[in-house]
Specification:
Radius of gyration: 26 Å
Helix content: 25-40%
Number of domains: 2
CATH topology of the largest domain: Aldehyde Dehydrogenase, Chain A, domain 1
Strand order of the largest sheet: 10-13-14-9-8-15-16
Low-confidence stretches: 1-35
Number of strands: 18
Strand content: 15-25%
Oligomer: single chain
Mean pLDDT: 91
CATH superfamily of the largest domain: Aldehyde Dehydrogenase, Chain A, domain 1
CATH architecture of the largest domain: 3-Layer(aba) Sandwich
Number of helices: 15
Largest sheet: 7 strands, mixed
Distance between the termini: 57 Å
């Protein structure tokens, strides 16, 4: 995910005025910090009061708000594209793709909300056959969504869709590193959504530090592992449940038996889209020395076909988000040897699509998530060595494997652990809304997209409704106890194994 500086809570926070879709009684602007011990207490309390009225619970209300997000995406489409271009020189195609993915979240929620909200009835033991047992899908309450800069529309609105579909009140916090998109969200989105149940908060580190002092019912954070630890620490003070969508180094194994040009095309696209600032981009390639020599010319051809001989002139190649990120990624070019690219232009925040060959595992480029257009190749002896290399490191957001042999792809799948997996392609699993998306271990926890977003923001409330009569049936569980009561009680509660046959 986005690489952030180490200043506490400041690194993913927008340094513009606080803006809110709430009423005028809510504090606004940096001056609000002087109003009492916590300037956001009234905002959170107001949303909590609204939630307690039950306003967000009816399906019709949820659909109205989801349809409003859809109208925002449609009516502000050109403004969104322009803001994203201003923030990161993001190509029109890539911004459109992000918007399509976000619109899909809205449409899937609208298409399925009735089904998702229904009570889910469960199997019962003999003792409960006369009772009603089900899972009630309750909203958590007031939730906080903190987004990241690299896909500033989708990484805010996709979880927002899930939170609204689940019936929550929501505060969203866009990233400071995409200021134009954040400003658009702060100024325009409140015009579409109900100000009683929704608010946008922007501000510097002191604002979000204060914001996190309030007790939310759920927190959803997208960003770096470092900042994720800070968010988790703040949530722990109030025992607030949360989802962390973080990053990490996603490995990509390329087998000796492979269509190298096809693999190179797919790897290069996933790596260099959004100038490499994609959390599920292949972070590095693992292959044998022989495969490296075959793969590099194919990567060179793919880059030339995608971006021309001078990628800096291509309208289809983005830029680093800011000076700090540019300098951080540029410093990683000293690892291994530059096989392709390597050119930089600080004034333009440009780093060329770059491939580093013969990279050693101890070099700087292998010590952190790259989050830029630099692809290291680490050589290993064989597939088993590649799997061992992956397994001895923190579990990544995704693992990729390329091979003409399905057995090889399945072996990498079976022998590694990650948030997601894709065979013979990269990043495309993100675009299939029926798959859960999220990390594991240091790459985060919790899943979202489609129904998984609804489930993330839903309290699955186990419910049992019993008859107040028929007390005679309950006496077997009341004292005084005896062996007969125990036998009866055990037999009515027992879950028997199906299809089991003991061989004497």
């Amino acid at each position: 995910m986005e690489q952030l500086q180490a200043t506490p809570l400041s690194t993913d926070l927008l340094s513009t005025d606080l803006q809110s879709g709430a009423s005028q009684k809510r504090p606004k602007g940096p001056a609000a910090l002087t109003q009492g011990s916590n300037p956001y207490a009234n905002l959170v309390t107001s949303l909590k009061a609204t939630w307690l009225t039950g306003k967000t619970r009816p399906m019709e209300y949820r659909k109205e708000q989801l349809e409003a997000i859809g109208r925002f995406l449609d009516e502000k489409k050109e403004d969104i594209l322009h803001a994203q271009y201003q923030d990161m020189r993001k190509p029109h195609f890539e911004s459109e793709l992000e918007n399509v993915a976000t619109r899909n979240e809205v449409n899937v929620a609208l298409n399925n909300l009735c089904c998702w909200m229904k009570d889910e009835y469960v199997e019962k033991t003999p003792a409960m056959q006369l009772d009603c047992a089900f899972i009630r899908k309750d909203p958590f309450g007031v939730v906080l969504v903190i987004g990241a800069y690299n896909y500033p529309i989708n990484l805010i609105l996709a979880p927002l869709v899930g939170a609204i579909a689940a019936g929550n009140c929501v505060i969203i916090k866009p990233s400071e590193h995409s200021p134009c998109t954040a400003r658009l969200l702060a100024e325009c989105l409140p015009c579409y959504l109900d100000s009683d149940t929704f608010a946008v908060v922007t501000g510097g580190p002191e604002h979000v530090t204060k914001l996190l002092e309030n007790q939310f019912d759920y927190i959803f954070f997208t960003g770096s592992t470092h900042v994720g630890k800070i968010i988790m620490s703040a949530a722990a003070k109030n025992l607030t449940p949360l989802t962390l969508e973080l990053g990490g180094k996603c490995p990509c194994y390329v087998d000796d038996c492979c269509d190298f040009q096809n693999a190179a095309n797919r790897i290069a696209w996933a790596k260099f889209v959004n100038a490499g600032q994609t959390c599920i981009a292949p972070d590095y390639v693992l292959c044998t020395v022989e495969t490296q020599e075959k793969l590099i010319p194919c990567l060179r051809q793919a880059i030339r076909e995608f971006y021309g001989c001078i990628p800096q002139d291509s309208p289809d190649f983005g830029r680093m988000v800011n000076d700090n990120e540019f300098r951080r990624v540029k410093a990683l070019l000293n690892s291994g040897r530059v096989a392709i690219g390597g050119e930089t232009d600080e004034c333009d925040l440009y780093i060329a699509p770059t491939v580093l060959a013969d990279v050693q595992e101890w070099e700087p480029v292998m010590q952190e998530e790259i989050f830029g257009p630099v692809l290291p190749i680490v050589t290993v002896a064989d597939m088993d060595a590649a799997i061992a290399f992956i397994d001895c490191r923190p579990r990544p957001l995704a693992v990729y494997a390329f091979s003409c042999k399905s057995k090889v792809v399945h072996q990498v799948l079976d022998c590694t652990s990650s948030g997601g997996f894709c065979g013979n392609d990269c990043a495309m699993q993100l675009l299939l809304i029926t798959l859960p998306y999220g990390g594991i271990g240091c790459s985060g926890f919790g899943k979202y997209h489609g129904k998984f977003s609804f489930d993330t923001f839903t309290n699955h409330r186990g419910t049992l409704l019993r008859c107040i009569g028929l007390e005679k049936l309950n006496t077997i569980r009341y004292p005084p106890y005896n062996d007969t009561k125990l036998a009866l009680m055990s037999s009515t509660l027992e879950v028997r194994r199906k299809g089991f046959c003991a061989i004497l």
